Amino acid sequence: MFDFVRKHTKIMMGLMFLLIIPAFILVGGKESFQRFNEGGSTVAKVAGQDIKQTDWDNAHRNEVQRIMAAQPGTDPKLLDSPEARYATLENLVQQRVLAAAADKFHLVTSDSRLARSLQEDPTIASLRNPDGSLDMARYSQLLAAQNMTLAMFEARVRTDLSQRQVVAGVAGTAFSSGAEADVALNALFEKREVQVAVFKTADFAAKINPTDAELEAWYKDHSALFQAPEQATIEYAVLDLDAVKKGIQPNEQDLKTYFKENADRLAGKEERRASHILVNAPKDASTDDRKKAHAKAEELLALVKKNPVSFAEVAKKNSQDTGSAVNGGDLDYFGRGAMVKPFEDVAFSLKKGDISGIVESDFGYHIIQLTDIRAPKQRSFEEMRPELEADLKSQQAPAKFAEAADAFTNGVYEQADSLKPIADRLKLNVQTASLSRTPAPGAKGVLASAKFLNAIFSSDSIEKKRNTEAVETAPNQLVSGRITQYTPAHTLPFAEVKGQVRLRVVGARANELAKKEGLEKLAAWKANPGAAVLSAPLVVSRENAQQQPVQVVNAALRADLANVPAWVGTDLGEQGYAIVRINKPIPRDVPVEAQLKQGREQYSQGWAGAESRAYYNTLKERFKVKINVAKPVAKTGIDAG
């Protein structure tokens, strides 16, 4: 028997796989399988291909990381809002549509086109050495920071270029004549001389005095407006890099080895002090002007080479860098990266007291004198111990986090009735909070995460009061929570909201009176213009509303001017009603040639954008785009009437 097993190992392993895996799914792994399946739900479909929830989550995480890297001060809550997440989904759908179209139309990017694009990339251009060659070490470091290899980056650029071709044919051939642009722009910038009468809701409020019975009846009809949201008191634990670092204690030998290997780097960077003389010669200057500037720099170089001690005096009289000239050209101390590269390369190659030759930069021609070198102070091991420990903890934390993340994910699931066991094991703090389904004003971190709140307020979490699954709320950050006390949504009692009810009822009825009065006056003043009580004449336009409500400006510009003066009424919403008399149209100010040209260009760009969007919408239909997630609706006030 055992001899058969040894000879047919692969067959036996396959048989065991077929027997064990279904049992795992049907018995012990049922709940895990369900969670996995839920996590992989389809959120959109393009050309028959699914976009999964995990695709969306990964795309949004990458987008958040990109924005935070570019704009570190951005509030993370804004990036995790339903609107921001939906925008990421729409972008992901667009990428898939363009990819499908590029494949369907056989649009490819040649190696030469890819090379040209990479050469034109300003970020890559900044990594070039003085001889024009690419600094591959810095290039690889830049890509590694984005978790990409060179091959991955070039593949992404190639794909991007291919997808751009899909709409380039439409956007690149869009055309609008100057006459068409002028017609549209003249209408856009036209003005109107108007007189206005506003019937404000607030002016009619004193006439409204509802009874308690009326208020209570209105409250019953509009009870949905007075719902207290569901509330939960929770305990939660967060696993992140900071939490992991607290549990790391580098040993003494590792610290000493790291000190020996990195003492120079940790001690700081060398700084240099220099003075310079600048002769301006911008890159866009003519060849003759640059020749003259170079000749002037050669004259000044000869002067200071002949008499080095005169450098400061020559700089004061001749340097065109007005900021440093008054100080004899002194630039104070600076480290690498502070100056433009040609200047830096020369400054860090000189010896103290040396005067350079002519150094060319984008600003012009420099003559540099190195006046001092400040070497970094070498500190002892004990002085550097805090920094050494912090560095080693930071280096070890990602690997430790990966291990802890597995333990955390499994722990909150396996002992689902409490967070304490896994918190004690990983030395995490169990915190408490009171919250609702939407982040509270000023909420930060995990308590502002829609993903975490959705997990907390899931039906399973509410009913069983078990730990949520480990939710990734940020890169290298997991959180799990459990409800300890839950209060469902409920209608607030009338006595508690009576004041709010009265404000709404009074506001609604006063608004009705204001509109009624406005409509009556409009009819009367049309019949008898001499009886109208209006403001002094104003000239309004889309550029200058003269502090008038937007509804007034729009009504004035849209009014039929076959007969002037023309009368229109416009609803101001909760603010009341307005009557507008349009005395006359005023043509657009004649633009100067530069403004006319700029306006026509912007109109052409807008037209090209509109055609591109229309073409993209056609592609969405062609590739049968379906988004299964409802688009978030902007919250608006509710008219009490």
- Indicate the structural class: alpha+beta
Approximately what portion of the residues adopt beta-strand conformation? 15-25%
Reading side by side through the largest sheet, how are the strands ordered? 14-3-16-15
Query: Distance between termini?
Result: 85 Å
Task: Please report the number of helical segments.
Answer: 25
Q: Choose one word for the global shape.
A: extended
- Characterize the largest beta sheet: strand count, sense, and whether it forms a barrel: 4 strands, antiparallel
Uncertain segments: 1-39, 636-641
* Rg, Å, rounded: 35 Å
Tell me roughly what share of residues is in helical segments: 40-55%
What is the average per-residue confidence, as pLDDT, rounded to a whole number?
86
Please provide the count of β strands.
17
Question: Please, could you describe this protein's structure?
Answer:
- The protein has 641 residues and is of the alpha+beta class.
- It is 52% helix and 17% strand.
- The protein has 25 helices and 17 strands.
- The strands form 5 sheets. It has a 4-stranded antiparallel beta sheet, sandwiched between helices.
- Strand 11 (471-474) and strand 12 (477-487) form a beta hairpin.
- Helix 4 packs across helix 6 (82-104), helix 6 packs across helix 10 and helix 10 (150-171) crosses helix 25.
- The longest helix has 34 residues, at 381-414.
- It is extended and about 95 Å long.
- The model is unreliable at 1-39 and 636-641 (pLDDT under 50).
